[in-house]
Amino acid sequence: MKQTVSHAKRLRGAFSVPGDKSISHRSVLFNALAEGNAEITGFLPGADCLSSIACLRQMGVEIEHSDDKVRVFGRGLRGLREPSDVLDCGNSGTTLRLLAGLLAGQPFLSVLTGDASLRSRPQRRITDPLRQLGANLDGRDNGNRAPLVIRGTTIHGGNYELPIASAQVKSALLLAGLTGDAPMRLTGKIVSRDHTERMLIAMGIDLTVKDDEIVLYPPSHPVFPYPLSLHVPGDPSSATFWWVAAAIHPDAEITTLGVGLNPSRTGALDVLKAMGANITISNERNEGAEPVGDVTVRGGGLRGTRIDGDLIPRLIDEIPVLAVAAACAVGETVVADAEELRAKETDRVATVVSELSVMGASLEATPDGMVIAGGGELHGATVQSHGDHRIAMALAVAGLVAKGETIIAEAEAVTVSYPTFWQHYAQIKEA
Ligand SMILES: O=C(O)C1=C[C@@H](OP(=O)(O)O)[C@@H](O)[C@H](O)C1
Ligand SMILES: C=C(OP(=O)(O)O)C(=O)O
Known about the structure:
Protein name: 3-phosphoshikimate 1-carboxyvinyltransferase
CATH topology of the largest domain: UDP-n-acetylglucosamine1-carboxyvinyl-transferase, Chain
Strand order of the largest sheet: 2-15-17-16
Binding site for phosphoenolpyruvate: 21, 93, 121, 168, 348, 390
Number of strands: 23
Strand content: 25-35%
EC number: 2.5.1.19
Number of helices: 14
Bound molecules: shikimate-3-phosphate, phosphoenolpyruvate
CATH class of the largest domain: Alpha Beta
Family: Belongs to the EPSP synthase family.
Helix content: 25-40%
Binding site for 3-phosphoshikimate: 21-22, 26, 166, 168, 317, 344
Mean pLDDT: 97
Shape: globular
CATH architecture of the largest domain: Alpha-beta prism
Largest sheet: 4 strands, mixed
């Protein structure tokens, strides 16, 4: 599908973005292992989370789902059954990697695959440590690419030092550890989004988090994990599209209501503040295990900044749209230490640089990020999402300030994480 977008005179709106993708995945994956039933509201009905539901159903988990409401009938840590077919994770890295950990300790055979993008993404980051813990799994390219084949077995606890700050790797190992025969201790780069830790603790799992280590003790009593009913907060990664839209537009005021403000996810807010954006946070509260609030951004000028180091895992999925902010800012922005961008749905260094260049931005790829000159005027053009949801939405935001019309090819990719994106896009322009 091609979507044509054009310059907006003004932007206004106050609305809730859909539920957090990371928490939605975890809400169904973890509750499938619970001893009892859980009700989830605010669930993200995006294609990625629907892949998680479909895979769980293939393993005998009963799940009722209607729009943003989900009921999961937990089967306990040892109640899943062998799927009779390959498990298709679609476009979702989170589904594939968390399931690989979860299935490593289940007593049956499973095969995990996905679409062409997912099958091209690196998996040794999970297969290597899982093998070290005793898992029996393999895949194409010596275990580095899906399809992955898992012959479930007893997982041994032990120590693993995480070489990359990845919540997917951390979560895969913790899920494998749940059915292990000894405690699992993770050290190294353990600081990344921490929804798994928060949720497992809330489900009664004995898990301790310190500055330099996470230790998980496999539950010894069959009442664990408890089911966890929850309301999923709005996704800050989705809200960032509107925060940037408002920040780069001279006549804008947009409020995103009930957005997750977990500090491991708010790097984009910190960067926009450092760039001089006019941001107000109100109504801060806790919902379940997560902090939330309302975020209002008003239009104004931005200046260039540096995005690197510890900030990167706190905003990795927001970099495509932050690049749009940087292209509209005065002065240079440098993104560094972000080689992980190259291992997402597309090589997001390459796709951001090629598509924003077509719109007149002046930016260059580096091995671990990009340098964006800033200050240039964007103009409409025909651009490609390359089937990547975050690239499609970042280009749509650029189109709000570009001169003339922008045509975005493969714009349907937004359904992966934000199925109502185009409705909200129309609303903020018409309000
Ligand atoms: O754990 C998660 O829910 C996610 C972790 C991040 O990936 P990495 O763990 O590969 O950094 C992120 O990019 C992805 O969109 C969701
Ligand atoms: C990288 C992403 O997701 P995943 O790894 O789950 O495919 C994303 O949503 O930007």
